[in-house]
Amino acid sequence: MHRRPVLAALAAAALPRRGIAQATDFPSRAVTMVVAFPPGGQGDVVARPVAAGLERLWRQPVPVVNRPGAAGEVGNAAVARAAPDGHTLLMGLSSLAVIPEAARLFGRQPAYELDQFAPIALFTADPTFLAVPASAPWQTLEEFLADAKRRPGQIAYSSSGNYGALHVPMAMLTTAAGLDLLHVPFQGGGPALTALLSGQVMALASGPGPITPHLRSGAVRVLASWGARRIPGFESVPTLQERGFATAEYYIWAGAFAPAGTPAPLRESLRQGMAAVARDPDVQRALAAAGNGLDYRDGEAFDAFLRTDTARLVQAVQRIGKVE
After folding, report:
1. Would I find Signal among this entry's keywords (predicted)?
2. Angle at 204 between CA 199 and CA 210, to 5 degrees
3. What are the pLDDT digits (tens) for 178-191?
4. Which residues span the domain enclosing 208?
5. Which of 144, 158, 209, 279 could form an SS bridge with 192, CB 3.0 to 4.6 Å?
6. Is omega for the bond preceding 39 within 30 degrees of 0, making it cis?
């Protein structure tokens, strides 16, 4: 009569030990880090030094796999459906929370939901800049806004796709300022930046990482930022909020996620690995050289950040409405 409860208790007690053994052995093979955009954008710029640091730490390959499409929806959904064994990760951007809300605007079933991901670690959270070519006639934000109002629909800007991480901040600005700009979507931040540099478009909302080399070379200039305060090193660049656009606040962040069903011991192994990589001087130097300030958070700190930013982005998408 008493054997069944005893056996059940022994079985239950064994579960955590199996999980711990799993985590201790992790990783036993390659861990794929998916970036849902082409090379050259913010997710890619952050993923590559982080993956290199994890390879040194784990002594296992950590290939970065670019899976672009539908402003990040394709790659994000692939990781949401991946086996929750810790061997498939996503270096997600702020658009991760936006895409499902945008699908609902159009009455579509989202390809994934945010709760299908387990947040592991945030690496960067930078305000976007309003970047224009050095050859552009505008030296200030005010000149850009005035010209845009004089010539509705004639100033083109590029983005990483509808509702992507580079489209939403520009849509925030156009909505708040009553502008009519010509939106030219691409499959990712890299192609969007190439369009700016080649003169196909005249404006781009970009995180600091991808445009820093071009700022240094003098190929582009920045007119404003979407931050709540001016950015160290860019003290002369005004924020849109201080110019009267209270709702224009946007951060292009990059963080590591696993599929939601990943067991807790594996999530903890992943978190410990990410924390160690964030302390790696080579990773820190690589991020800094690319213009990204390390803003590492994990655990409750990352969860709280994600909740706050998601609420702001969902409200922004609802204000922007349908974009065909």
Report:
1. yes
2. 95
3. 999 999 999 888 89
4. 129-225
5. 158
6. no
